[in-house]
Design goal:
The chain has helices at about 10-20, 20-35, 55-60, 80, 90-100, 110, 115-125, 135-155, 160-175, 180-185, 200-225, 230-240, 250-280, 280-295, 300-305, 310-320, 355, 375, 395-415, 455-460; strands at about 35-40, 50, 70, 135, 330, 335-340, 340-345, 350, 415-420, 425-430, 435, 440-445. The chain is an alpha+beta fold. The chain has a single domain, classed as Cytochrome p450. The strands form 4 sheets. The protein has a 5-stranded mixed sheet with strand order 1-2-8-5-3. Helix 7 packs across helix 19. The protein starts with 10 loop residues before the first helix and ends with a helix. Mean pLDDT is about 85; it is low at about 455-460.
Length: about 450
């Protein structure tokens, strides 16, 4: 079997480049070897084949039951945080069962019920920042998404356990995002204490303390079930599979951590990028504010969700700075032809979301922030895939879009913001996903008032 070309440098150096900055590493490989190339990140495993051609990505993501499979064991990098029962780390019938149990809370009216939670939390958070005092916008968006998770997912609004769990979860995710912890994930032999050097041990103990709080909440809910509750934890506890079996406590814990990791960090980062680009490009801010003001004061969330330019801004943010840069891996089961290569069983394939979103032939001037491109044409699910695709597409896609749009609309309508400096900010690795390479400092200049009273009185 002849694999696609790739860098010839030693595996250890490839691993270090990947850990340090996977985006620049992939861009360098694509520039040298084309849209399909291979890299090596483990001396004991075969190279990984990375593709950025939409047709090849479609072939990978829609072929799970034929020539390709998506085994959960290839996602064990996430296991230290999410657990062995996460929908991300399991596969086959187990994966299908968990996904079916998880899907209902994220669809239809149930999801729209969380609109008021998102709006109220956003208003509460942004009102705590003072006019004229610089702040890191990502700190604000992290506070918003964490509180939304606590209320919408965990069903915890106040109380000692709520405060303690929120603090523990925030610290746990922050530490898990460090480059050191990521490096340890690629070197399992180092995942233990070394006397006074015990980074991994401290992380695992912090994880255990957080788990104890989650299990306490689950046990209490089981003792005192309340069918009127609409938070996602309560809905998951009431869900039953085809054999009329509920999730176990450990399955609930792992899926809660999955929803937290996938719904807190990612949406907070996407929102921070959105504020950066909206204020980096004045014309974008002007058009967006004009559209938001057309709805008047306190618009209905369903009206906000239908705004075309707001949708385009969110889409362009997720295109230019995708938080997840790769699709989940697939493994070749039977010989397959892909992108001009004949690949043998055992070959691991990854679609590069980042490279696909930066293809010049699909997105002219890909490094420029241009929301209008999403108004001018419809992109296929394999040209624009910030939430992945296929059987492992992000379950919380609709919730993330809801939260992103409502939070942006609420803040931009309430206060006038500006960047403290207009310097360039680039994406870098943040844990197993990405984030800004330095804090995005913003300042509130003043409170805003809706400028279209006529539309305000006539808009329904």
């Amino acid at each position: 079997m002849k694999l696609p070309n790739g860098p010839k440098i030693p595996v250890l150096l490839q691993m270090m480049r990947w850990i340090a900055n996977p985006m620049s590493f992939m861009e360098a490989c694509a520039k040298t070897y084309g849209e399909t190339f291979s890299i090596s990140l483990d001396t004991n495993s075969s190279p990984l084949v990375i593709v950025s051609n939409p047709q090849a990505i479609q072939q990978i993501l829609t072929n799970d039951t034929k020539e390709l499979e998506a085994p959960g064991e290839l996602n064990r990098t996430f296991e230290f945080l999410l657990g062995k029962n996460s929908v991300i780390t399991i596969s086959g019938a187990e994966h299908q069962r968990q996904r079916q149990l998880l899907m209902p809370p994220f669809h239809g009216e149930r999801m729209r019920n969380y609109s008021q939670v998102i709006t109220d939390v956003t208003q509460n958070v942004i009102s705590q920042y003072q006019i004229g005092k610089p702040f890191n916008i990502r700190s604000a968006t992290q506070a918003i998404t964490m509180r939304v998770i606590m209320q919408a997912v965990f069903g915890l609004h106040e109380g000692t356990r709520a405060e303690k769990l929120q603090q523990f979860l925030g610290e746990l995710l922050e530490k898990a995002s460090s480059r050191l912890i990521v490096a340890l994930l690629y070197f399992p032999a180092l995942q233990r204490d070394f006397g006074p050097i015990n980074f991994w041990g401290k992380q695992m103990r912090h994880q255990q303390e957080t788990d104890e709080l989650i299990y306490e909440e689950i046990r209490e809910r089981r003792k005192q079930p309340d069918s009127s509750r609409t938070d996602i934890l309560s809905l998951l506890m009431a869900a039953r599979d085809e054999a009329d079996q509920p999730m176990t406590d450990q399955e609930l814990r792992d899926e809660l951590m999955t929803l937290l990791a996938a719904g807190h960090e990612t949406t907070a980062t996407a929102l921070a990028w959105a504020f950066y680009w909206i204020h980096k490009v004045p014309s974008v801010r002007q058009k967006l504010l004009q559209e938001l003001d057309s709805l008047g004061d306190n618009p209905d969330p369903s009206a906000v969700l239908k705004l075309p330019y707001l949708n385009a801004v969110c889409s362009e943010t997720l295109r230019i700075c995708p938080v997840a840069i790769l699709t989940f891996p697939r493994v070749v089961k039977t010989p397959i032809s892909l992108g001009g290569y004949e690949l043998e069983p055992g070959t691991v394939l990854l679609g590069s979301i980042y490279l696909t979103h930066h293809r010049e032939d699909i997105y002219p001037e890909p490094k420029q922030f241009k929301p209008e491109r999403f108004l001018e044409r419809q992109f296929s699910p394999y040209e624009f895939l910030p939430f992945g695709g296929g059987a492992r597409r992000c379950i919380g896609l609709a919730f993330a879009q809801l939260e992103m749009k409502l939070a942006l609309a609420k803040i931009l309508s309430s206060v006038e913001l500006e960047l403290v400096d207009n310097g360039e900010i680039r994406p870098k690795r943040r844990g197993l996903v990405t984030g800004p390479d330095r804090p995005i400092q913003m300042i509130i200049k003043s409170q805003r008032q809706v400028k279209s009273p006529v539309l305000q009185t006539t808009t329904v």
